[in-house]
Write a structure and sequence with these properties.
Layout lengths: L2 H16 L1 E4 L1 H9 L8 E4 L3 E4 H20 L9 E8 L5 E8 L12 H12 L3 E7 L2 E8 L2
Parallel strand pairs: 2-4
Antiparallel strand pairs: 1-3, 4-5, 5-7, 6-7
Helix pairs in contact: 3-4
């Protein structure tokens, strides 16, 4: 390994150990949620945020669960369904994430917690956060507050 490769590996190691991930949720999750069929149906809004690695991982898992469920059972499972993902964050304050589904099949509150809901809640708790599911008949609203 030459000196340049060694330097790059050292920098990568330092960044990883620092535990910081520069995450632009807007661009990152647009690529996760947007395919040719969903581009017009998913709206994503929020400021760029500097996240610790564990918070970035938790958010990625949470959004994966929400988008998977939306595609299988929720708003993205039908042609007219829409998803709105937005977040806000004030310096040194919590991150407020809101996932809203509309135009999908009629929603009923589950009689038991599914695997995805438990994963979302567990990932949120690990970040000293809170999760609220609002199973409205016209679409799911999931609000998450995380300490980042």
């Amino acid at each position: 390994m030459d000196a340049f490769e060694h330097l790059l590996m050292s920098i990568r190691h330092l960044l990883k150990r620092a535990g910081l991930v520069l995450t632009y949720l807007q661009s990152r999750h647009k690529s996760l949620l947007h395919s040719e069929t969903t581009q017009e149906r998913v709206r994503i809004e929020g400021p760029p945020i500097l996240l610790k690695a564990d918070a970035a991982q938790a958010i990625a898992v949470i959004l994966h669960e929400l988008s998977t469920n939306a595609a299988k059972y929720g708003a993205l499972s039908v042609d007219n369904g829409r998803v709105n993902l937005n977040w806000s964050h004030e310096k040194d304050g919590p991150l407020h994430l809101r996932w809203t589904e509309t135009g999908g099949p009629k929603v009923q509150e589950p009689t038991r917690k599914g695997f995805g809901s438990r994963i979302i809640e567990q990932m949120t708790i690990q970040q000293s956060g809170k999760t609220r599911f609002d199973w409205r008949s016209d679409g799911l609203i999931c609000e998450i507050t995380l300490q980042v």
